[in-house]
Amino acid sequence: MQFPYALRALRHQNFRRYYVGQAISQIGSWMQSVAIMWLTYRLSGSTGATGTVGFLAMIPYLFVTPFAGALSDRVSRRKLLMTVQTILFFHAATLATLTWFGHMTVPLLGAFAFVQGILSAVEVTTRHSFFAQLIEDKEDLPNAIALNSANINATRLMGPAFGGVLIAAVGEAACFGINAISYLAVVFQLRRIAPRDIKRARSGQSLLADLAEGWRIALSSPVILPLVLIVGIVSFTINPYSILMPAIAVETFGKGAELHGLFVSAVGIGALTGAIILASRQNVRGLSRWILFTASLAALGAIAFSLLAPFKITWLSMLAMACVGMGIMGTSASVNTIIQTVVDDEKRGRVVSVYSTFFTGAVPLGHFSAGWLAQHIGAPHAYLVCGLLCAMGVVAYAFNQKRLRVHLCDIYIERGIIPPPVQPPEK
Questions:
Q1: What is the three-state SS of 131-146?
Q2: What is the pLDDT of residues 103-154, one digit of tens each?
Q3: Whole-number Å distance between alpha carbons of 345 and 330
Q4: Pick from 213, 235, 218: which is nearest to 354 by CA?
Q5: How many whole angstroms from its chain centre is CA 142?
Q6: What are the start-end ranges of the H helices in 73-171?
Q7: How far is residue 171 from each of residues 33, 36, 257, measured CA to CA in Å?
Q8: Fewer C-beta neighbours within 10 Å, C or N terminus of the chain?
Q9: pTM attached to this predicted model
Q10: Domains of the chain, with CATH numbers?
């Protein structure tokens, strides 16, 4: 099949099938994400409670993700994904049932969020390393990663908006039920996929040894270490918008779930724009400079939103959140693309799990810290502090960027991504 250049990864049938299933599932996931935060705030009226539930949903990434990466290098990633998606179906269906009959409480929501965090940590890590098996031409892998980001953020645009309207009209249980059904789309498409075989991690080594090897490779690399650090900083400081937004929508803007959904959708608009730009790139060259731009944009968007909130100018606040979305997506997807480009197949799951730990594992720490801070100084001021901390991290990355680019250049030459420098003729 013929596709435009920016969609070239879709010409691979396996990737195309998986992409369709993920698109359906992601809409449901974003609807559930909005609904669970809103339900927590409705039941408790506390940003501390939303921060705690957000923390419980994401903290498993810190300790599950590394093991998931090592496991995905040993077993069939397709079968592992099918198993996790099936469990997630039953999880969301139970959540919908208890909410519909009025039996949901904040402690129960915390428990459901924690279980989902464990399952999602396995799913996300395996999914990132699975992409390489769906693409026959490795030159299309960066485009596949960019299209995955476009998928996530296009659905981020639709899901929260649908969720906000559905919560106001029917209630949170409807969002949970739709999400449960959406998991079946991924299972159906995975059954139709025949992924490319890859070299497995050697079986004579223990799972813990595999895990340690992945972290040793990542943390000793002059390329991977600065990349996972900047993505961790952006994630820790900027992602707490999701748990602060219910309080800002109600207490600062005097609105409800609809405005909450619009602000989260604005993040999706910015992220989708960034994903389209990234998908249009020919290769990975220049991505380290793009990361500097997108991380700066994330910090500036958070600062601008916090300063604009008291004036209640909705469209300007949405523009600021669009910058936040483009900044988060651009940084995370670019870091992921570079790491996937420089790592070998048999080590991909373990090394990508380090990226996932820094990016997603930093979120619960940010949620907990921002929720606690908002209790003392208010949600807009708490997000302002987050933006300023992110800006400090961007400055540190900028000072290290020249050294990073030198090491990247050497790797790209070794892998044939860029030609070696022309040697001057001998005299």
A1: HHHHCCCHHHHHHHHH
A2: 999 999 999 999 999 999 899 888 878 877 888 777 777 788 888 878 877 7
A3: 24
A4: 218
A5: 16
A6: 77-100, 106-134, 141-169
A7: 14, 11, 11
A8: C
A9: 0.76
A10: 5-195+209-414 (1.20.1250.20)
